[in-house]
Design goal:
With 243 residues, the chain is of the alpha+beta class. The protein is built from 8 helices and 10 strands.
C-alpha cells in the first residue's frame, strides 16, 4: 500500500460523483435495503447495514433516504431481491478493473458492463483474471483539519486498536486494517473523538500501473461508463496518472 493513496482517486472522482449525486443515492439506497432485508434494521447487530449506513454518511446522503430504505426493507412483503456480482476486466496498459454490481437481472448487467468495456477501449475478462491483484481491506480517512493529533499520536491509536497501516498526506490520514479488524478500529477511533470522513471495506491494489495522460483518460472513460450503470455499486482499479 505504501506509495499509493486511495484518497487521491476519491478526491479526483468527487466532482464527477457530485454531479451524479441522485444516482449515487439510488445505489446506496439499494445497498441499505438489501443489508436491512437480510440482516434486520438494527445496525448494532447487523454489520452489513452499519457499513452501508457509514458509506451513505460519507456520501452526505440525507438521513430520511436512509430511513426510507430501511423501512422499505423491513415492511411486510417480498419486495425486490438483488444479487452481488463481480466483474473483472482490463483497461489500457493492462490496468486491472474490478466492478461490483448489485442486480436483479444478471443478464442485463453483464450486457451493460461488456458494452462499457467494448465501447471505451477495455476488455472484460473471466473470473479470477485480476482479483488476485487486489487485497480486501478496511479503509478509514480522517481529515487533518478535524483533529489536533499528529501522525505519531494517531498511529499509536491505530495500532493499539488493531489497525495495520497509516499513510499521511497534507490533507488526510489514511488508515488500513484487515477486514476482520475494521469494525473494532473504526469504533475505537470514533470513541476517542476522531471524526471519520470515510469508513468502508474496500479493495486495495497490490501494485500500481502508471499511465500517461492519454491512457489515463481512456481508463476514466471506462470507469465513467461503468459507474453510469444503475446496477454498478463500486469500481476499483490499479491505474495512476504519471505526475
Amino acid at each position: 500500500m505504501a506509495g499509493h493513496s486511495k484518497w487521491n482517486n476519491i478526491k479526483n472522482r468527487k466532482g464527477a460523483q457530485d454531479a451524479k449525486r441522485g444516482k449515487v443515492f439510488q445505489k446506496l439506497s439499494r445497498e441499505i435495503y438489501m443489508a436491512a432485508k437480510q440482516g434486520g434494521a438494527d445496525p448494532e447487530i447487523n454489520p452489513a447495514l452499519r457499513l452501508a449506513m457509514d458509506k451513505a454518511k460519507s456520501n452526505n446522503m440525507p438521513k430520511d433516504n436512509v430511513e426510507r430504505a430501511i423501512k422499505k426493507a423491513t415492511t411486510a412483503g417480498e419486495g425486490e431481491n438483488y444479487d452481488e456480482v463481480v466483474y473483472e476486466g482490463f483497461g489500457p496498459s493492462g490496468v486491472a478493473v474490478m466492478t461490483v454490481a448489485l442486480t436483479d437481472n444478471r443478464n442485463r448487467t453483464m450486457t451493460n458492463v461488456r458494452i462499457a468495456y467494448n465501447k471505451n477501449g477495455g476488455n472484460l475478462g473471466e473470473a479470477g483474471t485480476v482479483s488476485y491483484m487486489f487485497d480486501r481491506k478496511g479503509y478509514i480517512v480522517i481529515e487533518r483539519s478535524t483533529t489536533k493529533a499528529d501522525e505519531e499520536m494517531l498511529l499509536m491509536s491505530v495500532l493499539e486498536a488493531g489497525g495495520e497501516d497509516l499513510e499521511a498526506s497534507d490533507e488526510v490520514f489514511e488508515i488500513y486494517t484487515e477486514p476482520n479488524d475494521f469494525a473494532k478500529v473504526r469504533d475505537t477511533l470514533e470513541a476517542e473523538g476522531y471524526v471519520l470522513n470515510t469508513a468502508e471495506l474496500t479493495l486495495v491494489p497490490k501494485t500500481i500501473v502508471s499511465l500517461e495522460p492519454t491512457d489515463f483518460d481512456t481508463l476514466m472513460q471506462i470507469i465513467d461508463a461503468l459507474e453510469e450503470d444503475d446496477d454498478v455499486s463500486e469500481v476499483y482499479h490499479n491505474g495512476q496518472l504519471i505526475e
